[in-house]
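Would you be willing to look carefully at the protein I have copied below?

:::
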Amino acid sequence: MRFDIVTLFPDFFTSPLNSGLLGKALAKQIATVHLTNPRDFTTDKHHKVDDEPYGGGVGMLIKPEPIFAAVESLPHLPKREVILLTPQGQTMNQKMFQEIAAEYKQTVLICGHYEGIDERVLHLVTREVSLGDFVLTCGEIPALTLLNGVIRLLPGTVGKEESLKAESFEAGLLDYPQYTRPADFRGLKVPDVLLSGNHQRIAQWRKEQQVQRTRDRRPDLWQAWIEQQQSSSQS
C-alpha cells in the first residue's frame, strides 16, 4: 500500500517511520510512505502557504493553491482514498483501519495546520477523519496514528497475525488481561486458571474477562456488542 502525506512538517515523521514495527514494515516494502510539502508548490519568494480568513477571525488558514498543487502532483493509483485530518471529521476506530487496509491501494493524508484549511480543499477529499473530540496544533499527529493503525494490519507487519484477532476492538470487545513471569510479583499473583494448562478453561476465562472489562470500562462498546449479538442470533 502507498501512503502519501501532504505536510508542512515532513521532519515530524523522520523518527516514527524508522522505528519499531512501522520501520520494519516499510523496510520490507509492505507499505511505502511518501512525504510532500505544500510549501514546495508556492510561487512567491517567501513560500507563503497561509493567509487571513475572509470575513475576519482569529488566526490564519492554509491557502487552497499549494494543497491542490501538492495533491495533483501525486500519482493516482486505483482505489485511492484522500483523507483530510480535521477535528470535524469521523472519529478513527478499528473498523476504519480495517476498511482502509482491505480496500485501498493508496491513501493520501492531508495534514491541517494553523486555524484550519480553506474549505475548497474538501473538493479533493473523499473522507474527513479526526483523532477525537479535541483540538491539536497539527494534523501530523492523527496522520501518524492512522498510518500506524493501518500498516500494522497489512500482512507481514505483525509476526503472529493470529494475535490481531484477539486484541481490543477486533471483536467489539476490549482485550483480556495478560500476564507473564514471575507468577508472583510482590504478592500480586497471576490468576490460577492461566497456570492450569487447561486451554479450554483459559479461553473461557479470557472471554469472560473481555465481556466484564468492556461492560465496566466502555459501556458504549458493551451496548453495541450486545446489540450485535442480538442481531446475529435473530438472523
Remarks:
- The domain at 2-151 is CATH 3.40.1280.10 (Alpha/beta knot).
- Residues 199-217 form the longest helix (19 residues).
